[in-house]
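An instance noted here:
***
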Amino acid sequence: MIRRSPANPIITPGMIKPSRDGYRARGAFNPGAARFGGAKGRDSEILLLLRVAEDCKGRPGFAAVPYYRFEQGQGYPEILEVKMDDPEVQLKDTRGVVYRGVDYLSTMSHIRLARSGDGIHFTVDEKPFIYPRDPSECFGVEDARVTRIGEVYYINYTAVSQDGYATALATTKDFVELERQGVIFPTPNKDVAIFPEMVGGKYCALHRPDNRGFGRPSIWYSESPDLLHWGNHKCIVRPRDTRWESQKIGGGAPPLKTDEGWLIIYHGKGDNSIYSLFCLLLDLEEPFKVVKRAETPLLAPEEKYETEGFFSNVVFSNGVVEKDGQIYIYYGASDETSCVAISDVESLLNSF
């Protein structure tokens, strides 16, 4: 039904050039994915939009953390280095420090492009593609998803700040010039996946507001006339009381259109904080209606690179592409590396 590439992990932190001196890549994971071809004479290629998490090397006796300085609409990566015995330093376990009342995270994420002709072997760009540009992104940008509509690629990503996590949108035609459209789902909301075509004259998306306190985080549906203003929100899929979904669920890559419905690969967080992937089928004409939902995972952590890492026991996908009749499912493993598993539409539809 699905097979992991023997080349996994296909991208590791060691393949990433740090975005500045003093930074080091700790993770290259959770890639968005898109087919892109023809530009400047290149053959059609697969692009991954990696989440690259970086920290600082630091010196003995010092705490060093990354942060961004903002000036005239630009973001500049910097390093805060303070003595560990400074009375104004408060350690926040492994997540960062508070210095003079200001939060700093131990890692900072940006989006980096990786390119491949065969979908397996990738070359990673040397510079960030999307990085923090204003205070709404001061804690980093994460987990991009890409939807092509016409000639435009719509890239939504998680913008993290002291105000929480929101979903922002950017557009491009060539993966060189990027136009930011701003926040489309305010905090706390992530796991947004935009459908690749209009349904019933409206754009559609899945999203995941954080509703902890009443119920558990679930998959929601929404509609828009312009991809910027969203409404008609509906909660359509909730976590089941199983060991795979006991904590929460969320959407994955943009939906794949099949004859039987919109095929979704979503994630569930279950017992012991283990993340797995599942298949979901939504109605073609009314995508807020569930047609089928798999009972058991499509993919669960089994290989060493999935069970050991920065955050162990995680497989998390937000990028899927079709190539030569095959479905390439790109996923992050243990919040550290990027991997690929290969299947086909028929096999995925038979997994229910």
Notes: The helical segments are 304-307, 345-349. The first strand starts at residue 3 and ends at 4.
